[in-house]
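Hi U.,

Before I forget, here's the chain from the pilot set. I'm dumping it here mostly so it's searchable later in email.
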Amino acid sequence: MPRITTSMLFSAAIVVTVLNYAGSVRATPAVGFTATTVLSGRFGEIDVVSKSLIPDSSENDLRAKAWLSVQKTEGPSDLYVQRNVWQPGGSTGWHTHPGQSLIIVTAGTVTEYQGPDPDCKPHAYATDMTFVDPHGEHVHIIRNEGNVVARTIAVQLIPAGTARRTDVADPGNCHF
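Structure:
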């Protein structure tokens, strides 16, 4: 019979601890949610700057109506148009994206919760409303808390060849 040493017990304790920790930080799965890529394409480097859209013809134009949009990338990017559908009670699970998403709600209502918000404040968006997912460290979950199917269209620009979405563990700030 093999002799059990202190180092063997210590190694076994480390393995059990690591496995237990890994199980506790698993990503939250999507439930009642499907995402379908409608279109996708690849861009080379992007260097676009839009300027003011205020016409010079009127003294009453407010500078607050000015609009500036900058999009600059290094290296190629992938563009996705996604159709997202939530069944009543459905959820994306907690996740992030490597690039921003511009989202329009086409049916029902979706509610977004943000991982860093200690108060777990809901942000509800109904049909024809829009919102932005800024990307990166922006951990969030989007849920359908209504009783009808909810749908969105999302346009995402991300670094070429990267995963469109990264599932993450529940940050623990929302208790649903």
